[in-house]
Amino acid sequence: MPVHRWYAHPTLADESVLNRCVGPVLDVGCGPGRLCRVLLRRGVFALGVDVAPRAVAHTVALGGIALCRSVFDRLPDEGGWQTVLLIDGNIGIGGDPHALLYRCIPLTAPTGLLLVEVDPDDVEERCTARFEDVHGHRGRPFPWARLGAPALHRIAEDLALNITDQWRYGHRRFLALGRQDSVSEPR
Question: From CA 35, how far away is CA 166, in angstroms rounded?
Answer without folding.
Answer: 19
